[in-house]
Amino acid sequence: MTVHPSLQTSIDAWTQSIEAISELASELVGGEWNRATECPGWSVRDVISHVIGSECEALGDPRPIHSLPRDLYHVRSEAGRYTEVQVDVRRHHTGPEMTSELEYTIIRRSRQLRNEKRDPGHELSHPVLGDMTLETFLKVRAFDVWVHEQDLRRALGKPGNLATDAAVISRDVLLGMLPKVVAHDAQAPKKSAVVFDVHGPVEFLRTVRVDEEGQGSVDRSPSLGPVVTFTLDWETYFRLACGRTRARRVADKVKIEGDEELAGRILANFSVTP
Predict the structure, then answer these.
(1) Of 27, 46, 113, 274, which is most buried with the most CB atoms under 10 A?
(2) CB of 143 within 8 A of CB of 51?
(3) Cβ–Cβ contacts within 10 Å for residue 72, how many?
(4) Residue 64: what are its φ and ψ, rounded to 5°?
(5) From CA 234, how far away is CA 49, in angstroms rounded?
(6) pLDDT for residue 165
(7) At a CB cut-off of 8 Å and minimum separation 6, what does 113 contact?
(8) How far is residue 159's CA from residue 24's CA, in Å, rounded to a whole number?
């Protein structure tokens, strides 16, 4: 029995991104480990620590027994505290220790994924993400690793891989959360449409429609009379959606047509990552 085809795409995408992270880590020197990233409160070392810790938990390794300092300003929720443990426990590790652990974790996790025999619909429970199928979990892992690869690339001035398979998976993950942003969080009017026209390495046009009940859905069909249209590039889109920047900082990269008050509410709620 081999890995189910619907899982293989996510596994391949994850592999490409995590190997890219390993390559970036192997080239780090001195102070680059402590360089700040756009991921709030995290350095390059912290992002890599998070990737290691997340994959160790996916492997079923025991969580570290570790007490967090009280002065971590960026930790604002229980989910954040849970995630931070794997990061803080590695803050005093040396560069060689970090790269060795990352490489070993990738070897172990890759072996586990090559031998994955469970059905895509197998139910999993994650302490932060909640209940989901194995197929969804692997997509989320590909998304998470790709976003952190991009965090590292921006911090280190080494752009690339903006249109990989993991980038496309990330697009779909983010689009899946868009109806809630528009219909529920921003309270777009009932029977209205909001269009997102995204260009660059990953191009797409999507319309979020709010029905008579106030429920949102997203499709590929253009709208003849959208209440708001956003036009922006792919990198700006995912940076906003992942909480890596604020709308006011990239205002020159986001073109808005239509109801500016609604557009402001949408952008204020655009960050969807934990």
Answers:
(1) 46
(2) no
(3) 14
(4) -65, 145
(5) 27
(6) 97
(7) 3, 11, 14, 15
(8) 11
Q: How many CA atoms lie within 13 A of 179 on its CB side?
A: 13
- Domain edge (last residue) among 160, 185, 215: 160
Task: For residue 88, report the phi and psi dihedrals to the nearest 5 degrees.
Answer: -65, -35
pTM for this model (two decimals):
0.95
106's tokens: 């990738």
Q: Is residue 236 part of a domain?
A: yes
What's the DSSP call for residue 185? I
Tokens 């590292």 belong to which residue?
152
The DSSP 8-state label assigned to residue 187 in this structure reads: -
Query: Tell me, what's the pLDDT at 80?
Result: 87
Q: What is the reported pLDDT for 226?
A: 97
- pLDDT of the residue at 78: 86
The whole domain housing 18 covers 5-160
97 and 121 share one domain = yes
pLDDT score, position 76: 82
How is the beta sheet containing 228-233 ordered, strand by strand? Answer: 216-219, 204-210, 192-199, 228-233, 255-258
Residues 77 and 186 in one domain: no
pLDDT < 70 regions, the chain: 1-2
Does 117 share its domain with 200?
no
**Angle (nearest 5°) at CA 41 between 38 and 46:** 85
